[in-house]
Design a protein that fits this description.
about 0% strand, ABC transporter involved in vitamin B12 uptake, BtuC, two-stranded antiparallel ribbon, Iron ABC transporter permease, transmembrane transporter activity, ABC_BtuC-like, transmembrane, 2 strands, transmembrane helix, mainly alpha, about 350 residues
Amino acid sequence: MKSLLVVRNPVLSFSIDRRLPMVAALLIALSLTAILLNVSQGEYPIAIADILKTLLGLDTGNPNHPFVIQTMRLPRTLVAFMVGVALAISGTIFQGLTRNPLADPSMIGINAGASLAAVSTIVLFPAAPLYILPIASFLGALLMAVLIYRLAWNDGSSPILLILLGIGLSAIATALTNLLIIFGAIANVSQAIVWLAGSVYGRTWLQFWAFLPWCLCGIPLALGLSRHLNVLHLGDDVAKGLGTRLEWQRGLLVIVAVALGGSAVATAGTIGFVGLMAPHIGRKLVGGNHQNLLPIAALIGGLLVTIADWLGRTLFAPTELPCGTIVAAIGAPFFLSLLIHHRKR
């Protein structure tokens, strides 16, 4: 029998799975291992012991190590992990809000809105400061979310209609993005195309520090709102019966999910399926309680993108594949298996 610690909550009683600390510790260990492995591998391999010495400020006897580790590899690896965390939390929130296990930021249209805003900034305003890109992506994703939410409103918001509208508006945003690429200047378009592939190639500490505030604000908010997500996941009628301020809490969760998803897209481009896979894997490990699921899904998402970046750099070296391509190669069959499973049910 599963061991559960029952905790009483004034809004909803929930169960904390005793497996959570063990699973979290295992995922943290795997994530640290993946980060070290990603930093150590490449055309210039470095022993993990030398990486640790360099990070601790100890002399390894090789003057190239600090530059390769701290300037070239560590920032892109940390960005990859943080992007995976943000996308996983965003996908978990959207699956909970829509009560649809096939939902993720790309299906809701969030990624498409963020991509349209980011590509517009890259193509039309190439001289814009770096910190503008996450802001533009967030505004584009938020505008898309508000538009979908407003169109779906009919004395309350329908989860199914939110999905359908997201698919339709995502197609429109993608068409507009393609128009910008077709008619934009070739230098700016080349940058936008590489960015759209979903990659952390060339990411530096500038991108890391620009992305970090979004994670520091969004992740704690998402974890703090997890019990409200539990209530909303039960359905509108049950949530109203429990005295939940339904639309206010749903709107706040949407803003948090949009902020994390939009800023992740601005930082690494369109990396799909992370927000779809991480919550499902997390549910298998710790169950569906979002207070358990959100941190576990976040670690799984960070681990997925970090491993995808490592595989993209090493599988066909010296040719480098975008991590978005690696994730898609795993995520597409995963999505099809989910679709077939739910069709049979």
